[in-house]
Amino acid sequence: MPLLSGIVLLLAACELILPSPGRYVAAALAVTLVLLGAWVRDAPAAAAPAVAVHRASETAARRTAQALRWLEPQGWICLDHSETPLLRYDEQVTIGPGGAFLFRTHELPGRVEIVAGAPRHHREAGDGAGRALKGFEQGALEAAAELNRHFIDRVGTRIWLQAVVVLWTDFPQRVVELDRLVYVHGDAVADWLEQRPRFLSADAARRIVSGLRRD
What value does the CA radius of gyration of the chain take, rounded to a whole number of Å? Predict the structure, then answer.
């Protein structure tokens, strides 16, 4: 309504003030300026959520990387997107005595729980069953499969990359291990990784890293 009222007032002013030959051009220009001003006013508000989410994900990914690098003295090797073009900014690969793992980080407001093998997001308390978080499982599994294909093409052997979703949010379950995917809270990721059964030699770990690292 404020936008419509402004246009009407501008048209009335043009009618009263300007002579006939110029009033139509001025009216069209005035309407254009009003509409442009409304678009500029609303555009930052529409873009803000996407920018905020992107920045939060980068911050959370750095926290995940810091947690994982605590394990480097124990023989674990950590890679991120600055060391290989195969990873996104919110992904890390960690290879060590317990195997090879792809971590994809998410940060959300509110609470997350895994129900019947699928994540559900409760943005506010008392919102019932919450909403399904679509794409978490598929995205992590596809990223791990793509890295595996790259490794086969480059090195000629297959590796098993365990896909792990790291959650920096209220996640009371802390760790949920499913058949193909693991959900773990960011604060628990180093402890969980440290407890993996040890089977991979240091030479095998270095070979995997060389197949994934930037040329």
Answer: 26
